[in-house]
Amino acid sequence: MRIALYGGSFDPVHRGHLMVAEAALEELALDWLIFIPTLRSPFKPDRSPADGSLRLRWLRLALAGQMRCKVDAIELVRGGVSYTIDTIRYFGRRYPDSELLLLIGSDQVPHLPSWREAESLACLVQFVVIPRPGHPSISLPSPYRLRHLKGWPMDISSSEIRRRVRRGLPVHHLVPQEVAEDFANLQDYRDKS
Known about the structure:
Number of helices: 8
Strand content: 15-25%
CATH superfamily: HUPs
Number of strands: 6
Strand order of the largest sheet: 3-2-1-4-5-6
Oligomer: single chain
Helix content: 25-40%
Largest sheet: 6 strands, parallel
CATH architecture: 3-Layer(aba) Sandwich
Radius of gyration: 16 Å
Order of helices and strands: EHEHEHHEHEEHHH
């Protein structure tokens, strides 16, 4: 099987995430695309995303009916800082005969060599680079294997959506309708955003 892993805070999941997923499914001939919400990013140690159960619910709402997309809570369940190498090893054990790919934003490519156990990680997965406006295409030497998605770079950010929610501005054009309806009713989320 060919499986791509898509990690992030997804706080909240938005249309840009879903368009990346569609591009990956089409361009990479995937059997599965697995969304993995992080508990705590090593790159954003001072940021506390919305509760994991909320982010899981939003992902499930956004992906309802998507037959080749799944959500896995391994990083929320494991606890602590979410290191990619631990997650890749977990999926390698879970799907031992599968090819694993890892979706990352183009802004992260220059930092890959500084990730925890970066060379081991590079031997275990092929990195699929998500284009981001304003970030040029970068390559890295072996053992890094990079492939670039062609489709749909969008400049939508979860942080901008949180700012709009905090200011009481509409976000229905940025997130799936079910997600917008769900968190529009959550006072705690509006207060925290």
